[in-house]
Amino acid sequence: xxxxxxxxxxxxxxxxxxxxxxxxxxxxxxxxxxxxxxxxxxxxxxxxxxxxxxxxxxxxxxxxxxxxxxxxxxxxxxxxxxxxxxxxxxxxxxxxxxxxxxxxxxxxxxxxxxxxxxxxxxxxxxxxxxxxxxxxxxxxxxxxxxxxxxxxxxxxxxxxxxxxxxxxxxxxxxxxxxxxxxxxxxxxxxxxxxxxxxxxxxxxxxxxxxxxxxxxxxxxxxxxxxxxxxxxxxxxxxxxxxxxxxxxxxxxxxxxxxxxxxxxxxxxxxxxxxxxxxxxxxxxxxxxxxxxxxxxxxxxxxxxxxxxxxxxxxxxxxxxxxxxxxxxxxxxxxxxxxxxxxxxxxxxxxxxxxxxxxxxxxxxxxxxxxxxxxxxxxxxxxxxxxxxxxxxxxxxxxxxxxxxxxxxxxxxxxxxxxxxxxxxxxxxxxxxxxxxxxxxxxxxxxxxxxxxxxxxxxxxxxxxxxxxxxxxxxxxxxxxxxxxxxxxxxxxxxxxxxxxxxxxxxxxxxxxxxxxxxxxxxxxxxxxxxxxxxxxxxxxxxxxxxxxxxxxxxxxxxxxxxxxxxxxxxxxxxxxxxxxxxxxxxxxxxxxxxxxxxxxxxxxxxxxxxxxxxxxxxxxxxxxxxxxxxxxxxxxxxx
Length: 639
Fold this sequence. Notes:
Low-confidence stretches: 1-13
Strand content: 15-25%
Shape: elongated
Number of helices: 25
């Protein structure tokens, strides 16, 4: 192996100081035991104190800081007191191997701390690995020339070139080119996704074989990957309620343990006839085995591992509390537009009169190509998909809320509502009227088209259901979610149509933002935990009111993303099932860890009071249980 591949010692010392301190402490403990065993007391009395200092310095500093600044006791200080007590007992009774026992206690506690920190760093690395998905530079196009500039200097409207195999530097919209992108790091999708003009791409995704020209539509710092990184950092600093409870419990528990330790160190010789040596020794072991280290490690490693797991699968939990909470939900409310549906109207049906053929969409596109209305844009897109060509309309006039008139190839054309179009055309066939009524009953918007006084046909436009919505809701029901509701400001007829198509249990239509909040409150009276899934500004109050607010990451507004507790990074509703399962699994692991930690403490205490526990064995059992609990929590790092 070449020297360039070996990590430098300063880097090792910086990245793994706890492990190095534990290693040095282990060497000193062995040398101390060896020299003591050889009868070299003077040398052992130099080596063993060094082991105490190197192995216990960090714990002593943290314990004393907590004591003097917060006026509280913690397990770090208890371990140091127990180790120093063993040393003092050894000097008093001239049983110098007690000093080695104290050093072993510090060593195992140091190793346990190093392993715990390594486990937490592994979780952090799993999350912070997202940082490696960001690019520092971008190929900005200016007057046909490439300029390699820092991503931070990009501005809205800039055009960027992404070559094959490169990372997409920031979120943008494809304006030229075709390629497939690996989005696994952002959305969890295993298969590459095709991207053409008009499609959005995300920073951190990997371009395939084609070159893409992008237009920047938002600042780089607002890209999806940057929002993910910021929210993950927030998740690491916030403490979930269960961990807060355990930390409060630990403070009270530590005081109780100290008080009981004092009583055990003073009363047994008077009431049980124990020797003072045995009494103090058992009291020291009690301080060690009764400390709640394993209990403290029962929650946070598990929840942070779950947060990391979710991030890898396109689900961003803003904190561990929401990972806990989503496992408890029994009711979910969905916004309709942009959540259960795509939020973009599309042409879903076309019905023409005889011999009209492609003329229907051509005439409609001629007029609507000059309109900025979403329905008009849907008609134009439909014509483009069929590769139809049309001439640009002239003398275009719009009647607000009614329709558009204009000249197409020198002939009068009309597009709009039935009553408006029929005033400019011959009587319409009954079949068109009947079909129009049926589509309107299904919640679709019907556009009529006429040319030179003759009705050509009708076009049905609708906001279509997301392809995965129906299956996602079915999966949630199989998980035992008792109520799935839809909240929308749309009319009852359209809402019911979407509900029937997706399998939603209950519909609340024609709601204002404050009405959505009231519905969430009513659901919360019926169910212990209620989730709300939305994407718009009008969903933000309901997202805040819900037990768990879930925002659509790509389609969601900034307000919704800031308000929500969980973000579906690629708007993939099918990931909700995974999120609920992950939350439930995290709850099970936390409960298992707590039961194991408390059970092990009880067993160690029983062994101590029956005289079957030595100090090194107590240390090994106590710290071993802490490491096992920490590693148990890391199970969630695996899918």
